[in-house]
Structure formats: C-alpha cells, structure tokens
Amino acid sequence: MAASQLQNPLKTPSSQLSIKKHKPCFLKPRRLTVSAAHPHLNGRKLRVAVIGGGPAGSSAAEALASGGIETFLFERSPSTAKPCGGAIPLCMVDEFSIPHHLIDRHVTKMKIISPSNLTVDFGSKSLRAHESIPMLRREVLDAFLRTRAESAGAQLIPSLVTHLEIPASSLSPYIIHHTVNNSRKTLAVDVIVGADGANSKVAKFIKAGNYTCAIAFQERIRLPDEKMEYYQNLAEMYVGNDVSPDFYAWVFPKCDHVAVGTGTVCGKQDIKMYQRGIKQRVKNKIKGGKVIKVEAHPIPEHPRPVRVRGRVALVGDAAGYVTKCSGEGIYFAAKSGRMCGEGIVRASEGGEWMISEDDLKREYLMEWDKKYVSTFRFLDLLQRVFYGSNEAREALVEVCGSEYVQRMTFDSYLYKKLAKGDRWEDLKMVFGTFGSLMRCKIVGRDMAAFNLQLFHE
C-alpha cells in the first residue's frame, strides 16, 4: 500500500458493512451480528500501531504481524537501551526463542547479603545441573526482538510520537502525530498498543491513571581481569537501609563488565546516596574498575488503574507489569506484549474485522489477570513482610539459607509460575520463617497474610 494512503484517516464505506448470519439449529436460536459494531474490513487489514520498541512492543508487533495484522512499530531511539539488571528467567529462552549467543553469562551462583553482611549462597546446591539464570544486555535483546518483529512483517518507524487524536466514534481512526528527522507526519490506525514505558504518553492520552514509580540507578563498571573472574557466573544481591530503604542493590555480571546498581520508591531523591552505599559494600570486589556508563530509569510499582480504554491497550511497564520484591519486568513485558498481540489477532480473526474495547478486555486483559494476578499479589506481600526494616531483611537472608526455600524460589522464578511444594516442607518453612521473624521481633499482619496465601496457592 502506498505511503500516501497510510497518512489518510481510515474509512469503511457503508457499502462494505454486512450482516454475518449463523445457520439456525434446534439447540440455540438464530443469531445476527450487526456489522456496524464489528464491520468487516473489506479490501484491507486491521491496522495497529505499537508505540515503544522494547521487549513488550517488539513482542506485540511480532505477534500482530505474524497473525496477518498491518503493524507499525514506533521506537524513538533504537540505538539506546533502558537501564536494567538484565536477568531473564530460564523459561524465556525457549518460550521466546532467544538465541544463546545473545546471553552474556549463565549465572549458577547467587549470594544474598544482609545488612550485617550475613551471606547466604543461593543456588550452588539448589540449582539443577541444566539450570541457570541468563544475563544479557538490554540493547542486545531489544535490537534482536525489533529485528525479528520486522522480519515478521512489522514496519519499524524510528520516530517520536508527539500526540494522539482520540476518535469521536467507535469506528473512527486514531491519528498518531509523530516526527521523523524533524518532519511532522501523521498516521491513521484502528488500534494502538502502548508499550512506551513507565512514563507512557499513550497512558496519559487515554487517561489511564497514575501509579507509584520506583527509580533504578546503575553504573556499568569494567573490572580488571582478576576481579571479573570472581563474577564469572555469580550475581550478588545486597539488602539494607544503606543501599535501599525498600528494595535491594545488585552486582550482575555482563559480557566484559558488571552492572552495579540499586532501586527505591521511598527515597528516590536519595538514589545517589544509596548508590554510594552499594559501591561502599563492594569496594574491595570492584577496586580498580572503570565506570563506562551511568544509567537511571523509572520502574512502575503496581499496575495502572486502567490498562485498556477504547481500542488502546497498555503492555509492559506502561501497564505496570513489574513485580514487587524482585523488580523483574523483562519477561512480563514480553509476555504481555505477545498476549496482547495474539488477543488482537483472535478478536479480529486475523485482521479481517474491526475490534472493540470489550474484545481487548476479553482476549487480553482477562487472560493476563487470570494467569498472573496471584503472582503479583504474592510478591507484593513478600516485599511488605521482608523489606520494611533491617531486622526483617536479616530474617529474609536467614530464611534464604534453607535449600527448600531456594528450590521453591527458583522453580517460581525460572519457570514463571507459583511453585507447588511439599505440604510438610511448606509447614516447616512457615515455622522457620516465623522463628526468624520472632528473633528479629517482626511478626505482624503482613506475615499472617503471607502464610494464608502460601497455603491457598
């Protein structure tokens, strides 16, 4: 289709509207679906714009294009990448066909270090022989996923979206105003997928509501060879008020450097102080290292009040799909994008029919909530129980010394589902957790809620 045609508002002539008839049967009455609500798009395919080219947007665009939808993928800065620890769950490698050469490190050892520097080796005994935590760089992963979306048929538009015109009717198009090389352009589409991060413009245009944001700050540090050898297959997590009042700090290995960073909700204005805190904790391990990049980025702390409005759906960080406790978002971004894209394909029957808000809610939002809402609630409880004070963090590290706790944690993290364990071991874990918290004088309502959910999952 010529480019000039794409700049014009979409039109569906009334002559193209039809009525779908279903043959009558004795078990159910004859149904008529009035095409004015869901018109058949004769002569063209459903047009969808995906705004944001990270894991969420690229996965959505790939699913849409593969399903026969005319797909446009907007990405403001293809050469840049969001600051990110870069850990992905093992299941993502196969589920999203991530080539192994993109993975910098296969972490098989983790250390979690308490405020008093109590250290627990997490994984050396509890990981199975074939298991690891893949670590990669976002700029590498994002570029790969965008290229794959293009190969599936999505049109990549390196452009800044400046404004959205919201249609006055259910059949009118959305008009996307954007700039390409300082030139203003417009594009008319039927559906929009907002995948433009925590500060989503799409969310603002559809009045999706606000949410609390954390801030992640990290430095990439190139270490001397002998120091880098220590982090060959090791990742470290540090907890304590000195590194974050409500989250954790990390040292994650990359291809030829480590990412040293922290995150917080409560003390965002003090993020550089917490960064100095983690660097102080690991100063002997990173001595002689050279900072090669400094990065910071907002991270949503809970889903937005509205994730679908009209023919617009939010995915990834724009929707608020980052887990509490771990701060993980890469997998959930890619998964939500793919689920949304596939939902649009199903609702439109491969791009043949117009879709509605109800279609997006049924085929995407309800499916997402059914699959993941319990996971997000459980991790929210964990954060409230264990991240509120240094005493609670000491208890957390102590609890993590249990091989059963470690195995359950890895089963849940690596395969992205709440692990179902042995009831007797679960009971022992609960009593062990209570014991640790009582020693730290921290038993309360959040802990009771945590135990209730544990036994109901």
Report what the structure shows.
Catalyzes the reduction of geranylgeranyl diphosphate to phytyl diphosphate, providing phytol for both tocopherol and chlorophyll synthesis. Pathway: Porphyrin-containing compound metabolism; chlorophyll biosynthesis; Cofactor biosynthesis; tocopherol biosynthesis. Residues 227-293 form the Digeranylgeranylglycerophospholipid reductase catalytic domain. The protein folds into two domains: 45-374, 3-Layer(bba) Sandwich (FAD/NAD(P)-binding domain), CATH 3.50.50.60; 388-438, no CATH class. Mean pLDDT is 83; it is low at 1-9, 11-36, 424-438 and 442-457. α9 (330-348) packs antiparallel against α10 and α10 crosses α14 (445-456). The protein is 36% helix and 24% strand. The relative contact order is 0.14. The protein has 457 residues and is of the alpha/beta class.
Characteristics:
457 residues, alpha/beta, FAD/NAD(P)-binding domain, 2 domains, 14 helices, elongated, disordered N terminus, EC 1.3.1.83, BchP_ChlP_pln/prok
Give a summary of the structure in a few sentences.
With 457 residues, the chain is of the alpha/beta class. Helices cover 36% and strands 24% of the residues. It is built from 14 helices and 20 strands.
Strand content: 15-25%
Distance between the termini: 51 Å
Output the CATH class name of the largest domain.
Alpha Beta
Domain count: 2
CATH architecture classification name of the largest domain? 3-Layer(bba) Sandwich
CATH topology (fold) name of the largest domain? FAD/NAD(P)-binding domain
Mean pLDDT: 83
Strands of the biggest beta sheet: in what spatial order?
A: 7-6-15-16-17-14-18
Q: Per the principal axes of the C-alpha atoms, what is the gross shape?
A: elongated
> What's the CATH H-level superfamily name of the largest domain?
FAD/NAD(P)-binding domain
Helix proportion range: 25-40%
Instruction: Give me the number of helical elements.
Output: 14
Q: In terms of structural class, how would the helical and strand content be classed?
A: alpha/beta
